[in-house]
Structures are given as structure tokens and as C-alpha cells.
Amino acid sequence: MAKKTKRSTTEDDGVAESKEEMSKQMKKLREEMCESKEEICKRLEKVNQDNQEMRKQLAEILTGQRKQWDLHTNGSSGDDSDAPRPQSNPVQAPRYRLVFKSGLTDKIEKGQPINISVALVDGNDRTVENGPLASATVELVVVNAEFNQHNNKYSWSREDFEINIKKAQGNSEAVDVDQSLKSIVSDGRFNLVQGIQCHSGSKIFRNSGNKKVRLGVMVVSPTEERVLEGLSNAFFVRGHDRDRSNNRSNTQSGS
Questions:
Q1: What CA–CA distance (Å, rounded) separates 108 from 140?
Q2: Residue 201 contacts residue 241 (beta carbons within 8 Å)
Q3: Within the chain, what is the greatest distance between any pair of CA atoms?
Q4: Which are the contacts of 122, defined by CB distance < 8 A and separation ≥ 6?
Q5: Region (Disordered): which ranges (predicted)?
Q6: What CATH number belongs to 96-242?
Q7: pTM of the predicted model as reported, rounded to 2 decimal places
Q8: pLDDT tens across 202-254, in order?
């Protein structure tokens, strides 16, 4: 009986030790799990901070690019005078442009018929003979000689060109009804044929005073693609306005 009691006591002690050991292992496991959770939370927090920093840097980059783009597209010279205006910031040169194949004399008489040859060319200066642009309607105008005076800029905008066009004044001779910009050139509209046209009969009905001007040619028919306007050499337009003015002054003096 005593031996049986002693064996039971030993077994109870073994069970107690096993329970204690298991409890220690469970406690250690819980501690390790807590440490793992804490480490994971720290890592997630760092990732979140890194993402916030990256978003901040990206926003700064986008803001800077947007400011540069606005400055490029909306920049102006700030010149509000009536003097001939230079080209604004250069834009990409169009694929096609108009050119004068024939030059003009240094002096042209007011009302004298002008004979010119105009062609539509590509970036390699080859005449464009096919496509809708090859039969476009073009118009002759007079522009300030200062516009593109160095003959080396092929990237102005349509607005830059139109600003420098000499317009007909209110008391000027009658303007052709088909002229879109009230040009001081009469009979200045014609169509290209296979990208080129020789035109005669146009007349400039206002003299240029003591300043030179240029003959310009622009597409006026609707097109989906920008065509750069053509410019001639600079010249004077002489007329009899000064003589009539002098006669008027002499008449007033003699009265």
C-alpha cells in the first residue's frame, strides 16, 4: 500500500512539472507573438511614412512642371503698343509652309499689278503636289518688314502673323468682299493647283511711306493642319498720296 501511494505521488509531481513546462512554453510563445506583432506594426508604419513622403515629393514635382507649362503657354512680351510686334515664344514649326518662288523689286508703285509665284512646300522644300492642301485657297496681304526680318524663324503662330498685317483704313479704297482681313491688297485671293500657282493682277492700294513692307501669303480655306505663312523680300510701296497732300496744302495757302 505504501508503495502504491509513493508511486501516485511521483506521478502527480511529473504531471505538475509537465504542466509548468507547458505553461512556460505557452508564455514564451505568446511573448514571441506579441514581439512579432509589434515588429510588423513598426514596419507597416514605416512603409506608410515612406509612401506619404513619396506622395509629397511627387506633388511638388507636378506643381513645378505645371508652373513651367503655364509660363510657357501663357507667357507674353507685355508690349501693348501699336508698333510692329515681334514673334512670341517659338512654337514647333509646322510640317508645311508657303513660299514665294519669285522675288519682288525694291520699289512697287501703288496700284501697279503684281506678278508672283507661290508654292506649298514640306520640311525638305519639296512642293506638295497632292492632298487637300495642294489646292488650298490662299490670300496675299502686306505685313510689316520687321516681322521675321532675319528670315530664319519658321515657328511663329497665326496670331503673330495676323498682328503684323497692314489693314485697310476706314476711308481707304473699296476692299474686295472676299478678303478675310480687310487687306490692302486687291484681287489677292487664288487657289493653288498641285501645290503651286502663278498669280497676276493683285495690287497694293496704299503706300508704305518711308518704311519697307513685305508681301505675305496665308491659307484662308479651312484646314485641319497648320500651314506656315509665306513672306517675300522687303520693299517700298510708292504712290501719289504725298503729291495730293502737297496740292491740298498749296491750295489752302493760296486761298
A1: 15
A2: no
A3: 165
A4: 95, 96, 128
A5: 1-35, 61-93
A6: 2.60.40.630
A7: 0.57
A8: 999 888 888 899 999 999 999 889 999 999 999 999 986 544 444 444 434 44
